[in-house]
Amino acid sequence: MRDHYYATQGALHIKYNLITSHNYLSHLVIYKLMLLPILLLSAVIVCNVLIQVYGTVWWLSWISRTFKRKNISQFSGIAIRLLSISFIFFSFLHAFQTIIWALLYLYFPESSIAFDSFSDAWYFSLVTFTSLGYGDIVLSGHWRLISGIEAINGIMLIGWSTALMFLLVQRFFKMVHDNQHNQ
Length: 183
What we know:
This protein is mainly alpha-helical and about 180 residues long. Helices cover about 85% and strands about 0% of the residues. The protein has a single domain (about 35-180), classed as Helix Hairpins. The protein is built from 5 helices and no strands. The protein is elongated.
């Protein structure tokens, strides 16, 4: 009876080791399959942040040059022009960032099967980047997580642009306020 107990325990132990090693191997395969997308995802995030940084530096230098050259008497025309150009600039900047995400989705066969064309991938990226999330195109598996990270990236970058636009409006408000007190 005692030998039967040890034999049963040994068999259970071997079976448990086989199950856990199989789970370990399957998890290892899943992690290896996700490693390349995660590395490319990180590269896309870094690329988008660098685009935002260089866009911000260019925009700030352009705004500074414009404020130095213009006379306060031309204020309303300057404000309309700068706000309009800034809005268009940041819109194109974010459109370019979403194109990079769309190219990432098209690069991998697992995610590209959800898209019939580049315009579908770009549409999905625009909807995800802006956190609109219509849900008419959905990804499966770990690509759902990656599209969620795109939404986080988009919110952060759009928030960054919004802060810069607010800075511009605040500067205009300060100019009007200072101009009223100087008269």
